[in-house]
Design goal:
Helix content: 55-70%
Strand order of the largest sheet: 7-6-5-9-8
Order of helices and strands: HHHHEHEEEHHEEEHEE
Mean pLDDT: 80
Radius of gyration: 41 Å
Number of helices: 8
Low-confidence stretches: 1-7
Strand content: 15-25%
Largest sheet: 5 strands, antiparallel
């Protein structure tokens, strides 16, 4: 044990530390002890590096070699993937031309290695394919391909198609319609009717507001179509009104 301590230089550090604490002021002794430990650590570090220099160099070379291999593998994968995408593109074109001879298309999502390895689907956009504007290209694990044609439309267009007279600015945003087209008009009319003892009015499909079955007292611009009446009723109720959806109108009470 003593031989090992002498060999390592630890004995010297201990002797210097004890001498410093015994004969020097406390604040000076602390710095001397710290300096002795730092010198000891530095000497041991240099000694360890000198003894294991070859081993450390060998490990560095192995790490560099692994990094180089990983860098090389990436460029090798890209050309193979590009080739696979080109082949798939030809197959997609053949499929589409069997139904739409004049069509063209482009990738919405670029195929990945996983698509070719495991199968899956990827989206394309198509031109000159009648009412269809997009398609899903489906590839299974066996390499078989199928193309599913898709027709895409905005919600506004769909609502407009179901109600030709709908104002598309408000057909999908009931809250915007209420705040911009209805709130002030309703407040003024209800205030006037309430002062005259009337407690109920009906809003018809065309936006006209009537009391006593046939007396029109006003009109709401761009009144939403029936598919949004449940939402409209909810907005009326949130604003302190009583609302009931009937077959041909919404009945309001206050």
């Amino acid at each position: 044990m003593r031989k090992a301590m002498k060999k390592s230089g630890l004995t010297t550090v201990i002797i210097v530390s004890l001498a410093a604490m015994a004969f020097l002021p406390k604040n000076v002794a602390q710095w001397v002890v710290l300096a002795a430990i730092v010198v000891f650590a530095a000497v041991k570090g240099i000694s360890y590096y000198a003894e294991h220099k070859d081993e450390i160099s060998e490990k560095k070379e192995k790490i560099k070699s692994k990094v180089k291999k990983s860098k090389k593998s990436k460029p090798e994968t890209e050309p193979v993937l590009n080739f696979a995408i080109t082949q798939l593109s030809h197959r997609v074109t053949d499929k589409l031309h069997s139904a739409f001879p004049e069509c063209s298309w482009h990738w919405v999502e670029r195929p990945t290695v996983a698509l070719f390895a495991e199968g899956g689907k990827v989206r394309i956009a198509t031109n000159k394919t009648e009412e269809f504007t997009e398609a899903d290209v489906m590839l299974d694990a066996f390499g078989r391909i199928e193309v599913k044609m898709l027709k895409t439309d905005t919600v506004t267009k769909i609502v407009k198609a179901t109600d030709k007279n709908a104002d598309t600015d408000y057909t999908v945003d009931a809250d915007a319609w209420y705040s911009q087209c209805a709130q002030k008009v309703l407040t003024d009319i209800i205030t006037d009717l309430n002062a005259r003892g009337t407690k109920v009015l009906c809003i018809k499909e065309d936006g006209s507001m009537v009391i006593n079955e046939d007396e029109q007292v006003g009109t709401l611009k761009a009144f939403p179509s029936k598919n949004l009446w449940k939402k409209i009723v909810s907005i009326f109720e949130d604003n302190g009104l009583m609302a009931v959806e009937n077959e041909d109108c919404i009945e309001l009470g206050w």
